[in-house]
Amino acid sequence: MDALIVIDVQNDFCPGGALAVEGGDQIVPGINGLLNDAPIRVFTQDWHPAGHSSFASTHAGKAPFDMVEMPYGPQVLWPDHCIQGTEGAAFHADLRTDPADLIIRKGFRAGIDSYSAFFENDHETPTGLEGYLRTRGATHLTFVGLATDYCVAWSARDAKRLGFDVTVRVDLCRAIDLDGSLDTALADMKAAGITVSDGQR
User: Fold this and answer.
1) Angle at 114 between CA 64 and CA 165, to 5 degrees
2) 70-84 pLDDT, tens per residue?
3) 112-125 burial, b if ≥16 CB within 10 A, otherwise e?
């Protein structure tokens, strides 16, 4: 059973947003085209409270993209983004969200960031997505969305670690590429046995 996992296609990650990923809006038509054929469709949504601990604005003297050490490990500090209930946190207007079977909101705990669709950044606190997919009978997961090198890659690696067969459609993802993070993420995914596909047969 296949499941399509659409990661964080939200206004703040698209051009003009608070944490814009170059070309983030360009993947929307392709994702829309996959939805009808996917037996299971899950969307994730970054959903931070104001003043989240991963925001640079909550750390005196720090700037966006600085690194800090948190109780759960290293953390990139981000511009304020995807704050609950704001237009920036909303899905891109052209994304077809009605077909979603489930929307998983992540990053809502103020003290810990959440890149992966499966776990908070401590790699221990679950979102509940694994249980949902197991009960639906999913065995193969295809990931699309934003951003390749953070939330997509972390989600894909966790899915593989949990025993799912995993494909990442890089043609339907876009990356932040912070200090070579895209190449690192692609190499890590391939080393983990994840199929990295450009959608060409």
Assistant:
1) 125
2) 999 999 999 999 999
3) bbbbbbbbbbeeee
Query: Residue 172: its pLDDT value, please?
Result: 98
**Residue type for position 120:** E
User: How far, in Å, are 15, 22, 41, 164 from residue 159 at the CA level?
Assistant: 28, 26, 15, 6
Give the catalytic positions in this structure: 8, 106, 151
By percentage, how much of the chain surpasses pLDDT 70? Answer: 100
Length of the chain: 201
> Which residue, among 188, 4, 12, 3, has the nearest Cα to 107 in the 3D structure?
12
Q: How far is CA 106 from CA 116, 195, 197, in A?
A: 8, 25, 26
- For the CA atoms of 182, 187, 191, 195, the dihedral, rounded to the nearest 10 degrees, stands at 70
Instruction: Judge contact between 86 and 52, C-beta under 8 A.
Output: no
pLDDT of residue 201: 64
Contact call for residues 11 and 94 (beta carbons, < 8 A): no
- Cβ neighbours of residue 132 closer than 8 Å, sequence gap 6 or more: 42, 102
